[in-house]
Specification:
With 256 residues, the protein is an alpha/beta fold. It has 6 helices and 7 strands. Strands 3-2-1-4-5-6-7 form a 7-stranded parallel sheet, with helices on both faces. The radius of gyration is 17 Å and the shape is globular. It starts with 8 loop residues before the first strand and ends in an 8-residue tail after the last strand. The structure holds NADP nicotinamide-adenine-dinucleotide phosphate.
Length: 256
């Protein structure tokens, strides 16, 4: 149970159809601190696990939101605003590494870089959380402590980049990190109740990591349940002084 949020808190999990986002929804619903959980995904009709959770749990409301379509983000924000005046926790989980209409792939070398794939990666991984911040900011304008956390990735760290490759994903996650830091600087002036962070979840057993799991050392691949428990512990411990930090699942600092 999260102890740093007031009873009756309201949360938004953005990118909740699968993987880490879906597991955040499950664990927040299991916590009586949260009176309401909004879960967004781009096609609610095909998010069957999320729909099953919503059918069993009146505290869960599913909202359509495609981070690559700013009008859809604005509509989702209006729908959430119709259900609550304030959010205490916003979690940006949507991310892409491979697949999709742009046939994204984790490039091994420069010759594999394609403009269309770079743009698709940046649209979801980098622009998405920033545009969500823009449209949901008004729901963070209150006096309670709030956390705005974007799930990033250690491979987006410039300082930690020793292996190279993965141009589109690394570049987009580095841009996401810069947006998170820039937002934290702005909100330290204008929204002092909001702690704004980037979080590295650790390699987690989801569709996103599946093609690369063979090279993960034994014991280093987390089940989504473990990842989310660890990230919620980090989120629960955050204070205003942590705003603008890039933290890993164990609370350690990741170099930018
Ligand atoms: N798994 C790992 O090992 C790992 C490691 C480091 C960082 N991360 C980060 O953790 C986050 C969650 O990843 P995951 O592992 O849970 O991946 P996942 O299981 O592949 O889930 C990705 C989620 O992103 C959503 N999404 C993709 N494009 C979207 C769009 N345009 N609008 C809205 N939602 C969209 C997907 O929705 P649809 O169902 O509609 O496609 C899905 O819910 C990502 O930001 C990822 O970069 C993961």
């Amino acid at each position: 149970m999260l102890t740093s949020f007031p009873s009756g808190s309201q949360a938004l999990v953005q990118g909740a159809s699968r993987g880490i986002g879906l597991e955040f929804v499950r664990q927040l619903l299991a916590d009586p601190t949260f009176a309401q959980v909004f879960a967004s995904c781009r096609t609610p009709g095909s998010a069957t696990e999320l729909a099953a959770l919503a059918a069993a749990e009146p505290r869960l409301q599913v909202v359509a939101l495609d981070v690559t379509d700013e009008d859809s983000i604005a509509s989702a924000a209006a729908r959430v605003a119709a259900g609550t005046e304030r959010l205490h926790l916003v979690l940006n989980c949507a991310g892409v590494l491979h697949g999709g209409p742009a046939a994204l792939a984790a490039e091994k070398r420069l010759a594999e870089v394609r403009a269309e794939a770079l743009a698709a990666s940046f649209a979801v991984n980098a622009l998405g959380p920033l545009l969500v911040a823009k449209h949901f900011e008004r729901l963070l304008a209150h006096r309670d402590r709030a956390v705005f956390a974007s799930i990033s990735a250690r491979v987006g760290s410039i300082g930690d980049n020793r292996l190279g490759g993965w141009y589109a994903y690394r570049g987009a996650k580095a841009a996401q990190n810069m947006f998170t830091k820039t937002l934290a600087v702005e909100w330290a002036r204008s929204r002092r109740n909001v702690v704004c962070v980037a979080l590295h979840p650790g390699t987690t057993d989801t569709d996103l990591s599946r093609p690369f799991q063979a090279s993960v050392p034994p014991g280093k691949l987390f089940a989504p349940g473990r990842t989310v428990r660890q990230l919620l512990d980090v989120i629960d411990s955050l204070t205003p002084a942590d705003s603008g930090r890039f933290l890993a699942w164990d609370g350690s600092e990741v170099p930018w």
